[in-house]
Amino acid sequence: MRPRSDGAASTAYDTPAAGLFARRGVSARLLLAAMAGAAGLFAYAPFDVFPAAFISLGALALLLTRETRARGGWWIGFAWGLGAFLAGVSWLYVALNRYGGVPAPLAALAITLLCAYMALFPAMVAAAFVRLRHGGSVRGALLFGGLWVLGEVLRGLLLTGFPWLSVGYSQTPPSPLAGYLPVVGVYGVGGLVAAVAALLALVRWRAAAALRLPLGLVLGVVVGGVALGRVAWTAPHGAPLKVALAQTNIEQGLKWRPELLADWLDVNERIADVEHADVVVLPETALPLLFERLPADYVANLAQRARARNADLILGVFERDQAGRIYNAAISIGAAPTQRYAKQHLVPFGEYSPPLFGWFYKMANIPMSDQTSGGANQPPLALGGQKIAVNICYEDLFGRELIRSLPEATLMLNMSNLAWYGQSLAQPQHLQIARVRALETGRPMLRATNTGMTALVQPDGQVAAVLPQFERGVLRVDVQGYQGMTPYARWGDWAAIVLAVLSIVLAIRWRRRQ
């Protein structure tokens, strides 16, 4: 119980629903926290119920109001995070067990440990919130939102980062908060969601006078997002490109079988033979062979066909340099001089082994798992009068890295192979991430994938065209290049970080004056 300013006793934040949780035991609160975290899954694709993110975080904030010790808040935040990540990224089990050969119990344990690691970040946020909070809903919202930003930034940085399911990804259009993505990026929007959720959860709904400021602030956030969503941060540049995005749909369990290599080379050759296209794109590692080991006449034939149409073909293939280092690469051949991009942000355990984890590779069977990172500032591919910034697979989770190619790049291209995860939530979730990157950069995002979702995302985050998942085909699109810089492209994640720190400082100073 805390003393109110009028001398009367009240529960923390004096919320009408708080009494419900006060009567429940610790285990019940942990269960409710885990359920609230799991419920947040519905905010993301393919469900796209963006208000679910506010409900999920609002429930977390409300549960934390009943805690007086940071330790209790830590466990509630951990339970929330464990529920959220087990529900949201459990598809990683498919890669380890079905395709990686890790025994089912060990694969399940590995995924649980990964989710437990990611749950540490909401746990730290919750513990700090309980430790620092005091007083009204506005102060609580500032504190909760600021801490949430810092927690997600850390999750995206430590141990190379894994920011999948950052809350801001759930706010793609039609969410009114999508308008903030070109300004403060995915972390800033996640902080806004957390702040608004906490504000609505902590306000005293029975006190009419206490509602005016919080509801006015929420309305201001919504109106601001709608207004920003109408701003054209970038402008068209050059003539549109005719692009053909290939979806090869080669099953991961069959891709590396030597007796099927000739079949897969034939599939890629036929699907790349597209007329009336300026650029044809094959997905990540579409050719299951080192580039140097491809038959010389095979590559020459692909290049000759592309040149005959005054077009270029971008191949997803592994490449080895003279020192024997292997790269996950995109190589263009055809009308323009040959150009390359090598994946720079590698996947731990899938593309390289972190220190002290050699035992993992003794159990797993992951082809080409000893790769080298490409350089951090590789130039875009100059093709068809546009400059295409390539990113491979989960590199598009890191907005701060993609903006290195700006303002030079006029188009963004993601080449992925999500066949590792079977028919799961990975494909639609990854497309939603691409929508956020398009909004942040003010550029179209092209996606060429093995099994889905091959698509064109416009700079406003709308999906202009998409192929059905797990079907072989070619998506033909006319795409316009763009130039200019969004605020996020100029500031990166620093705008969200600075605003988060200011919010926390303001909330603490406000508390001390009180």
Count of DSSP-assigned helices: 17
**CATH class designation of the largest domain:** Alpha Beta
Q: Which percent range describes the beta-strand content? A: 15-25%
The overall number of domains is 2
CATH topology of the largest domain: Nitrilase/N-carbamoyl-D-aminoacid amidohydrolase
Structural category is alpha/beta
Q: If classified by CATH, what would the architecture of the largest domain be? A: 4-Layer Sandwich
Rg to the nearest angstrom? 24 Å
- Strand runs, count: 15
- CATH homologous superfamily annotation of the largest domain: Carbon-nitrogen hydrolase
Q: Regions with pLDDT < 50 over 5+ consecutive residues?
A: 1-23
Mean pLDDT: 90
Distance between the termini: 17 Å
Molecular shape: globular
Oligomer: single chain
Query: What profile does the largest beta sheet have?
Result: 7 strands, mixed
Helix content: 40-55%
Describe it for me?
- The protein is an alpha/beta fold and 514 residues long.
- Mean pLDDT is 90; it is low at 1-23.
- Helix 2 (26-39) runs antiparallel to helix 3 and helix 8 packs parallel to helix 17.
- It contains 17 helices and 15 strands.
- The protein folds into two domains: 20-84 and 120-231 and 493-513, no CATH class; 236-344 and 384-485, Carbon-nitrogen hydrolase (Nitrilase/N-carbamoyl-D-aminoacid amidohydrolase).
- Strand 9 and strand 10 (386-392) form a beta hairpin.
Which terms would index this structure?
single chain; 514 residues; 2 domains; 17 helices; 15 strands; disordered N terminus
